[in-house]
Design goal:
2 copies of one chain form a homodimer. By secondary structure, the first copy, chain A, is an alpha/beta fold. Chain A has 2 domains: about 70 residues, Hypothetical PUA domain-like, domain 1 (Ribosomal Protein L25, Chain P, Beta Barrel), CATH 2.40.240.20; about 150 residues, Alpha/beta knot. Chain A has 6 helices and 11 strands. A 6-stranded parallel β-sheet of chain A has the order 8-7-6-10-9-11. The first copy, chain A, has a 5-stranded mixed β-sheet with strand order 1-3-4-5-2. At the A-B interface, helix 2 and helix 6 of A face helix 2 and helix 6 of B.
């Protein structure tokens, strides 16, 4: 099964359109034809079962046969991940976290991040592919924060703050439960002392992922899986 | 902290040697000098605290200052993963599973594996790097099996068989506990009917990783983390 994506503004009660990359992918790579039945999501919880009615170069029109609405699974997870220089590692982390259910992703420049910029367009395209690949119906929002404070201050009041900390013992770890969780993972090299103070001042709780040293992307994937999927020890 | 690796045959009661790639890496990349204190593991649970005594081109001799012995953490996990064509995805899966504690890795050619060969030397080198990076002291064994039967028949009698199955409901999932677990993850495209029969005939138990579709490498990483680190629902 292939899942396509369209923005909510291209959906009317009876018809929806795929445009740009999605239309190209549908017609040139997957070679859909008029009359084919396809699944489309608006990235906002709706799954449309459609019949393709018109195909133009960059525009595909579909008749909506039926719609199902999925509720977002609780807890809402905002993953905050330190910028890592190797682009494939960052994109891999993001891809896996979306597959596992992250609802929002913020990449921040940590004090220990190596120089280098994030290509936000590439991260967004990774997020979109991962959503479709894993048949998820909510498109995670992606943003960049210039530092850790900017990332965590953007959260709502009811969002709990949890950070992966390799310096604490597993026995000391605490679990914050809640409907909205912000999970923070530092870059390679971990948090600076100043970042650690910020996390504590903002009420952050340290979570140990185990006694061994994990790479940033591994920490991001396991903390997302554990919190989103209710696997806490 | 950097961790180096040497094979048990290069260790005597008072001295040990680093050779080949490890010696080159130590001298040329990390630029160790005579008198430096370094940590070395034999990949078999021993951690040597050493002082570098002699440096030659491809051979470094170290004096052993003290040794600590770590016990292997139970359960012993053999990860059996279907060959995936994209080499970086396979190597990524292997790297993450080693970081998370997999004890042994078998790559098998699944009925749905796309054509392509596995470069076992590259997988081994990924395993070695991941062990050192995560400061683990047990070097996972890596092997290739021509098909699923060959992979699972190699296991010992007391090893339980668990396979990631996306076709069952989470409610139906069972947990097999034990000291020795073989965790099987299919290639992209999943298991064939014949492979499914083999898994059932051999007493395999299906485990659901959730209701969404996960890529092979994501399934491998999460099932390893969940079973090795005791995170079962």
């Amino acid at each position: 099964m292939n899942l396509f994506y369209t923005t909510p503004d291209l959906v009317t009660p009876k018809l929806l359109r795929l445009t740009d990359q999605e239309a190209k992918h549908a017609t040139r790579v997957l070679r859909i034809r008029t009359g084919d039945q396809i699944f489309v999501t608006d990235g906002n919880g709706k799954l449309f079962n459609c019949s393709v009615s018109e195909i133009h170069k960059n525009d595909v029109t579909c008749e909506i046969l039926d719609v199902t609405l999925e509720e977002r699974k609780s807890p809402y997870i905002t993953l905050v991940i330190g910028l890592i220089k190797k682009r494939d590692r960052l994109e891999f982390a993001v891809e896996k976290c979306v597959e596992l259910g992250a609802d929002e992703i913020i990449v921040f420049r940590g004090d220990h991040s190596e120089k280098g910029n994030v290509r936000l367009d590439r991260v967004e395209s990774t997020v979109l592919s991962a959503m479709k690949q894993s048949l998820r119906l909510f498109l995670p929002k992606v943003s960049f924060a210039k530092d850790l404070s900017a990332a965590i201050d953007a959260r709502g009041k009811s969002m709990s703050l949890i950070y992966a900390d390799e310096t604490i013992d597993k026995g000391e770890t605490q679990h914050l439960l809640g409907d909205q969780l912000m999970l923070v993972v530092g870059p390679e090299g971990g948090f600076s002392e100043s970042e650690r103070s910020i996390l504590k001042e903002r009420g952050g709780v340290a979570y140990s992922l185990g006694e061994k040293r994990l790479r940033t992307e591994t920490a991001a994937v396991t903390i997302t899986d554990r919190y989103k999927n209710g696997l806490l020890l």
